[in-house]
Amino acid sequence: MIKKTILVMIISLSCSLLSGCWDSNEPERMVYAHGIGIDYKDNRYIIQLQMIDLGGLSKLESSGGPVEEQSEVGKASGRTINEAIFNLYRSTDRRVFWGHLSFIILSESVMEQEGLKFVTDLMNRYRETRYRIWFYSTKDSIEDILLAEPIIGISIARSVLSDPENSFEQSSFIKHIALRELLLKLNEPGHEVVIPAVSVTKRWKTQKKTDDVIQLDGLTVLTKANLKGFILGEKAKGLRWMDETMHRDDLTIYKNKKPVTEAILKTQNVKIKPVISGGRVDFDIEIKLKASINELDFQVNKEFIEKEIKKMVKKEVMKTYKAALEIDADIYRFSDVLYRKNIKEWKKHQHNGKLSLDEHSIRSIKVKVLLKDASKHLLIPSV
């Protein structure tokens, strides 16, 4: 009997020492940060935080009915980014949870003020944030971007900003980049990173109104300390052929200045070989592509299509490279290539972890094309 009494007392005392859930946070008592935009004006950082209602999103995705507002945007400023965030906390009704933060948009002015350095440091240190946060740049109004909603009532949690991989599989224009990869590239030779540039477009409309929708414009090159510059539109197209993760993208082929066919290309393999000669470091590039024909307006033979694809891919690769040289950017990461393949020569030629490049640093570009849909029938217009 005495033993049983002692056992009960021990168990009772042990239970009293258990912490239980006294410090837990109930989901319904929090609001969720989904995206954040950061600007800089008049010596102050301006943050705009996009909050989402997870209950409303689950209702939308389960087809339980429409949701009038998928998100709301709050705005505050401060002398530092963290101070601006705490100033915003004072107007929130609930605790802000950062574990679902999906993307960060940086304005041109904040990137010019070493904004990337401060943002990555803050997000890397804070315990709730994850490494899968996508980074974007813009010249447009951050508020307009954060208030833009996906077309046809798609959940905002599946927008092009928060879920870029989905649309990248269909059209691989500019590769998205998350916090983890961004940190790695900034600390590797070259010490530069490429992030997608976005803007607001009015290409989509309903019966009632024209929608503001987000689109990819090109790319931005950044270092830890400063903004190198933007490469937009046609000038940015060469980067896709140098990316082995590229799923597919289109290339219009011309004859006598008229479009004759539309090819869908996928980069299968990219080899970059450093060539050391006469005190210089140059590079030979070999690109292997797989092609299929999506549209054929005029009859052309297989040899013509392959020849034009090779010519146009080379042209786009050089066009992007030259645009990067204008902003002193190593767009194809040649510095990192030499570092990994010949560190002895890299030490001789590097300055602050980067090679000095010019228009002649690309010695040759060789493009190999495998035209899948190449039968005689498929290279004749349907009508």
TrEMBL record:
Keywords: Germination, Lipoprotein, Membrane, Palmitate, Signal
Localisation: Membrane
Spore germination GerAC-like C-terminal domain location: 217-352
Matches recorded under Gene3D superfamilies: Nutrient germinant receptor protein C, domain 3 (3.30.300.210)
Membrane topology listed for this record: Lipid-anchor
Cleavable signal peptide: 1-19
Pfam families (alphabetical): Spore_GerAC, Spore_GerAC_N
Spore germination protein N-terminal domain: residues covered: 23-199
InterPro entries found in the cross-reference section: GerAC_N, Spore_GerAC-like, Spore_GerAC-like_C, Spore_GerAC_C_sf
BP term (GO), one: spore germination
PROSITE patterns, per the entry: PROKAR_LIPOPROTEIN
Matching NCBIfam families: spore_ger_x_C
Listed PANTHER family: SPORE GERMINATION PROTEIN B3
Name of the protein: Ger(X)C family spore germination protein
Origin species: Bacillus aquiflavi
Taxonomic path: Bacteria, Bacillati, Bacillota, Bacilli, Bacillales
